């Protein structure tokens, strides 16, 4: 199979969908890898590193799309890329279509078979291709939130860990999954006072052990969150429903309960955002203010650390890419029910039930 790796063109996106090690593995399986010139530059990977492992370097994205059968990307295709998709293409990337009805319609019109990293599941119902980027995003969320709390950035002017004689900041982490766990670990490492919310008692018990009893765990409900907002300096939204649009856990009205210049970091923004007042931002312009509250809603947080993120992503995706290349999409989906859950669009239709339901609800 001919596998194409275009350069990412989403604003402030520096990752690439494949490493030289991944190229070598695919070539050893008899496949051809076509990499757009400069695709790995943002991740510190020169064209020569790709070509030394057997990749062909092509001048532009148009040529890569024209010659490849399977397109590997990191982020959802941008309008110019969608126009290059053909019915015979397999697209494998992050899509987050529940919050992108226009993109979903465009992908349906393309006729391409589109698989989303974020809805692939393993045998235990976990999300193995979302997990590495969730780990990165969780860590970045706390780092970014701590930075945005500084006064020159518009924050309250409080140090996350405090100092002897001065109390630390209070951090609320809403959602105890992979993002929430990693966000809480970094916040605890910075010596903040941390509260983690989740709606699963079993998960809260796990978090007690994973966090060494250092964080306070709370069963998540609108009332409990509302009661805690007045104490919060930093709130990290880490809510995920597989394939679906994120629910709002903080309303615009509830912002009035918070301390002025507190910070909200919405890691769920790819799925529409879990704060009612959220809207997508970029690394170049990461924040905005609503009712005196700073919002950080960057849609590709892991893109800020592309060397870490690119290698972590390829480590996770490569076995699935090899499976698809070796056996073709139809056979691969039959062989692996978890990979089959990654199928979002094919034959001009949205096929993932949760994605389809979210799109129908959005009109």
How much helix, percentage-wise, in residues?
25-40%
CATH topology of the largest domain: Rossmann fold
* SS class: alpha/beta
Q: How far is the N terminus from the C terminus?
A: 38 Å
Q: What string gives the helices and strands in order?
A: EHEHEHEHEHEHEHEHEHEEEEHHEEH
Give the CATH level 1 class of the largest domain. Alpha Beta
- Structural domain count: 2
Biggest sheet: strand arrangement: 3-2-1-4-5-6-14-15
Mean of all residue-level pLDDT scores: 96
Low-confidence stretches: none
Count of extended strands: 15
Q: Largest sheet, if any?
A: 8 strands, mixed
Explain how this protein is built.
- The chain is an alpha/beta fold.
- The protein folds into two domains: 2-120 and 306-362, NAD(P)-binding Rossmann-like Domain (Rossmann fold), CATH 3.40.50; 131-304, Rossmann fold.
- The chain contains twelve helices and 15 strands.
- The strands form two sheets. Strands 3-2-1-4-5-6-14-15 form an eight-stranded mixed β-sheet, with helices on both faces. It has a seven-stranded mixed β-sheet with strand order 9-8-7-10-11-13-12, sandwiched between helices.
- Helix 8 links the parallel strand 8 (193-198) and strand 9 (216-219).
- Helix 6 (131-148) crosses helix 7 (178-189).
- The protein is globular.
């Amino acid at each position: 199979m001919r596998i194409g790796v275009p350069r990412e063109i989403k604003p402030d996106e520096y990752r690439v969908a494949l490493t030289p090690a991944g190229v070598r593995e695919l070539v050893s399986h008899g496949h051809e890898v076509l990499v757009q010139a400069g695709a790995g530059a943002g991740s510190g990977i020169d064209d020569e590193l790709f070509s030394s492992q057997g990749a062909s370097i092509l001048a532009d994205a148009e040529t890569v799309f024209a010659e490849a059968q399977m397109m590997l990307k990191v982020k959802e295709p941008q309008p110019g890329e969608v126009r290059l998709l053909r019915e015979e293409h397999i697209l494998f990337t992050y899509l987050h279509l529940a919050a992108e009805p226009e993109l979903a319609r465009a992908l349906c019109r393309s006729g391409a078979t589109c698989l989303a990293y974020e809805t692939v599941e393993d045998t235990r119902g976990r999300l193995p291709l979302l997990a590495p980027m969730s780990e990165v995003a969780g860590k970045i969320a706390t780092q970014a939130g701590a930075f945005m709390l500084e006064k020159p950035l518009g924050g309250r002017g409080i140090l996350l860990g405090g100092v002897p004689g001065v109390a630390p900041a209070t951090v609320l982490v809403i959602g105890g999954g992979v993002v929430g766990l990693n966000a809480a670990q970094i916040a605890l490492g910075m010596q903040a006072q941390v509260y983690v919310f989740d709606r699963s008692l079993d998960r809260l018990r796990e978090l007690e052990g994973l966090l060494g009893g250092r964080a306070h765990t709370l069963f998540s409900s609108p009332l409990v969150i509302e009661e805690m907002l007045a104490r919060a300096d930093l709130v990290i939204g880490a809510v995920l429903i597989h394939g679906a649009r994120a629910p709002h856990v903080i309303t615009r009205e509830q912002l009035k309960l918070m301390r002025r210049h507190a910070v909200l970091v919405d890691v769920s923004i790819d799925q529409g955002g879990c704060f009612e007042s959220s809207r997508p931002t970029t690394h170049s312009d990461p924040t905005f203010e609503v009712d005196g509250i700073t919002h950080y809603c960057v849609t590709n947080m892991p893109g800020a650390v592309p060397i870490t993120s690119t290698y972590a992503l390829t480590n996770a995706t490569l076995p699935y890419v090899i499976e698809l290349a070796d056996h073709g999409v139809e056979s691969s989906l039959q062989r692996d029910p978890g990979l089959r859950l990654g199928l979002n669009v094919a034959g001009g239709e949205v096929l993932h039930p949760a994605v389809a339901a979210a799109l129908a609800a959005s009109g």
